[in-house]
Amino acid sequence: MVFHWRPCDMADMELVELMDWRERARRRWEGDSGGT
Questions:
Q1: Residue 2 in contact with residue 28, Cβ under 8 Å?
Q2: What are phi and psi of 26, to 5 degrees?
Q3: Which Pfam family, any one, appears in the UniProt record (predicted)?
Q4: Where would you tag: which of 3, 13, 24, 34 has the fewest CB atoms within 10 A of its CB?
Q5: C-alpha span between 7 and 4 (Å, rounded)
Q6: Which CB contacts under 8 angstroms, 24+ apart, belong to 26-32?
């Protein structure tokens, strides 16, 4: 897991903010070069 927050930590976030964090996690997991 790249970011591991509890559901209660994310409860007050807007959907757009959650989507942004998901994208950040995806980039970190895959690496900035886009490869696996």
A1: yes
A2: -60, -45
A3: Phage_P2_GpE
A4: 34
A5: 9
A6: 28/2, 29/2
pLDDT at residue 36, rounded to an integer = 52
Give per-residue pLDDT as tens, 1-36: 567 788 899 999 999 999 999 899 889 888 865 555
d(CA 34, CA 5): 24
Rounded distance, CA 36 to CA 17, Å?
25
CB burial class (10 A; 0-12, 13-18, 19+) of residue 36? exposed
pLDDT of residue 14: 95
